[in-house]
Amino acid sequence: MPASMLVVSSLTKVVASPGGELRLLQDINFSVDAGERVAIIGASGAGKSTLLGLLAGLDTPTSGSVQLNGVNLFDLNEDQRARMRGDNMSFVFQSFQLLANLNALENVALPLEIKGDDQALNKAKERLDEVGLAERIHHYPSQLSGGEQQRVALARAFITEPKLLLADEPTGSLDHDTGVSVINLLTQLNETQGSTLIIVTHDEKIAEYCQRVITIEAGRIQGISDATK
User: Fold this and answer.
1) Whole-angstrom Cα distance, residue 68 to residue 86?
2) What is the 3-state secondary structure (H, E, C) of the chain?
3) pLDDT value of position 3
4) What CATH architecture is 39-57+77-226?
5) Over 60: is that where the pLDDT of 193 sits?
6) Over residues 122-127, mean pLDDT
7) Where is average pLDDT lowest: 24-33, 134-143, 164-173?
8) How far apart are the C-alpha atoms of 168 and 70, rounded to whole Å?
């Protein structure tokens, strides 16, 4: 049996609101094995993005824990959590988050350059070739289509060979066909690199590309099911 990379226990997030306490998440429990693809699905406002922020250690819960490889993120201080993210995680967002003043090659190389890797540009070329953008490496984000920008974002996310990749609505701003091609690429990279993949989405069709689906409604898990496409 593969080891659980991520273990979420009794995770609860409560915030103050004008009408009193607002429970964004309530008693969330699940685990994710190393190399697994898991979708977190639910309607807007269900608590998906709040959960993703907690899984990344970008926010802190009211109670409960998130263990990454046996380490509770919330036993760490903010700097330690940042180092944990840098060493173990990458992110893909709906809005791509590319730097407009850097070309595709420079955007992809940036995470390795920050780490001081003198092979950053060569590795970035390899990653861009893997995502089918070998001819577009010197193009800037404004010169790329939405699908191309998201492929650049995927190449950047995988260049550090992360143990865990968190994707927040990665196809949300793309048309259906482009979204499917991006998800196919995401799952292909997941399989070849062995990274654990968690995708937050409202799209059940996208969730089908994962091995398990966690359904969230009003801050609570309503079900966990197998969903291999």
Assistant:
1) 13
2) CCCEEEEEEEEEEEEEECCEEEEEEEEEEEEEECCCEEEEECCCCCCHHHHHHHHCCCCCCCEEEEEECCEEHHHCCHHHHHHHHHHHEEEEECCCCCCCCCCHHHHHHHHHHHCCCCCHHHHHHHHHHHCCCHHHCCCCHHHCCHHHHHHHHHHHHHCCCCCEEEEECCCCCCCHHHHHHHHHHHHHHHHHHCCEEEEEECCHHHHCCCCEEEEEECCEEEEEEECCC
3) 67
4) 3-Layer(aba) Sandwich (3.40)
5) yes
6) 94
7) 164-173
8) 24
pLDDT of 2 over the 60 cut? no
Tokens of 127: 């990653």
Q: What is the pLDDT of residues 57-70, one digit of tens each?
A: 999 999 999 999 99
Give CA angle at 96 (109, 215), nearest 5°: 120
Q: Read off the pLDDT band of 229 (50, 70, 90).
A: low
Q: Domain-by-domain residue ranges, the chain? A: 39-57+77-226
What are φ and ψ of residue 156, in 5° steps? -65, -40
User: 72 - beta bridge partners?
Assistant: 67
150: nearest Cα among 177, 187, 178: 178
Is pLDDT at 105 greater than 60 in this prediction?
Answer: yes
